[in-house]
Amino acid sequence: MRKSLIAVAIGAALTVAACSDKDATQQVNETVQTEQAQNSAFNESNPFYAESTLPYNAPDFTQIKFEHYMPAFEAGMDEHAKEIEAIASNSEAPTFENTIVAMERAGALLNRVASVFYNVAGSNGNDDTRALQSELAPKMAAHSDNISLNPELFARVKAVYDNREELDGEALRLVEDTYKGFVRAGAQLNEEAKGKIREINSEVSSLTTEFQRNLMALAKENMIVVDDKAQLAGLSDAEIQQLAAAATSVGHDGKYAISITNTTRQPILSSLENRELRQRIWEASAYRGTGNTETDNRPLVKRLAQLRAEKAQLLGYDSWGDYVLENSMAGNPEAAQEMLRKLVPAVVSNVEAEKAEIQAMIDREGGDFEVQPWDWAYYAEKVRAEKYALDSEEVKKYFEFNRVVEDGVFFAMKELFGITFEQRDDIPTYGDNIRVYEVKDIDGETLGLFYGDWFTRDGKRGGAWMSSFVSQSNLLDKKPVVLNNQNIKLAAEGPTFLSFDEVSTMFHEMGHGLHGMFSDVMYPSLAGTSVSRDYVEFPSTFQEDWMLNEKVLNNFAKHYETGEQMPKELLDKVLAAKNFNMGYDTLEYIASALLDFEYHTLSPEAAASIEDVAAFETAALERNGVAVDAVPPRYKSTFFAHVFAGGYSAGYYAYMWSEILAADAFKYMQEQGGLTLENGQKFRDTILSKGNSKDPMQQYIDFRGQEPTGEALLERRGLTTPKID
Question: For residues 455 and 679, what is the distance between their CA atoms, to the nearest angstrom?
Fold first, then answer.
């Protein structure tokens, strides 16, 4: 999760920039509108020409066609450039209103088209959208640079910044963030260095887009096609039907297609009895992008590490990690690495204990082999079943999709915040099986719209995330229109059942959604999830634990046929088993987070000297003490989308950092009475409504009364025994 796709794609062009003072804006807009009317490629017939007339400016997908995107992007960049030029060349003395606020108002057209296109490309993409993404990447990077490296514009921003003592609250925060954004973009560099920054930004934009596009290709190249149904022993009839339907959809009638998900570990491995097929699936996952098929991501990994190191050096930082974490809660890579490395001994100890139990199970069943990565999930499930007498397939029967959504997630949000979700079938969407809800506040007033795109489809990128079609802003009088994505496999027929992890993920993404939905700030650049990476995952991780609240569980964990509540005996087993295999889960995450830092704390020379990506990865894991047999990183280098395609480079550690906040906050809330409207309102007022309008740690202190400690995290993960007074 998890930042807006728009922000990732556009960067400073939309998060730092936005309009002109009203007189200048009016003059520019009149000129732009005249030019638009004369431009046959972009006129009133293009649905992006004006704001959507649907509720809350939701995109009208009955009108939007692929051919509308490029003309709207070109017109949007042109209009935005003129607005920015009007601000930069304004003859009046720089003020907060005619410079900073004017920038916040700018770029409306570009924002409209970008917010739709990048969301659709990620959720329902195809060859056309991927080609357009590639074409747009360098153009959008150049557009962003034209703003952030504009010397006249920066001079005005600096003038406002130098006189900021007259400002306070959100206005002061916005000025300081805007100024810092320009400096970090290279506004103070000489022209030669600025030119180099432009070249790097353009290439990085193209390479990250290519990396993401390659992941889609790799998913197809590494699809496993099974001829013999007998090899699928261990799967349910419904799961086998899903695989048969998937095979038919790609031209393999009568066969079974297994798609590779975005992590190294594949969920299907926990059920498959056939060891050879398990190994085949795991190797297809773990070695994708390494040249074993047509698409090779290794050159992109090396080049991106080098380019980021070069950019950091140009900007005066020791490494890309130092540059990225300057604006984080951690502050620098050393602090984040120390946090992770402190956990390693306890985590590895737990892994070794888990491994011993798994090996004992293999030995008891007569397996003459040492546990391998493709064996772990399968035998761990056997150990879990034996240890807790827990049948995962039986548990799923109590996690029927519709009930999880309506009686689980939505119910919990009503209990905690008083909000309700009313389905709006009249609002069009961009694909099948997407639901739109109008979110009503406790007083009946509308907060905004929520799109639930929970099911996997061809053309959707892997994982789960939140983003926005419209971001909240009191300045622009905008209510939020937010989007949650997951990759749940829709049953071929009958009810769709969710795993424990899929239910937890749904609560997590709703946390991101509410961070956008409850945003109540003036300026769009400070709205919603526009906070540091190691804070943005806090409100979402916090929501996960409400899944296990007794009142919430009793409301949604009901048998799909009988409607009976999950028996207490089974529920007790679920709760007892929830931290099972947590050593493995934690180690694979920490290994990836430390691998991220290994790439992004390199000097340009060291990054350029990487010859073998696999060898670099192995050495990095060994150096950090996380190279444990049978437990590979959650993401290996060639498919580490968070850092080589998304916005988490030098930031993957953020999930663990945020979990410290989430665990501490949740424990505190339990001490204050748990699932109550009073607690929810306090969390909303101090955290969810603030966006980036206030320092994140101060937000947390406002809620909690103190900075967080790490004890609750270890308890949450079952890696220590809580102290009893």
Answer: 32
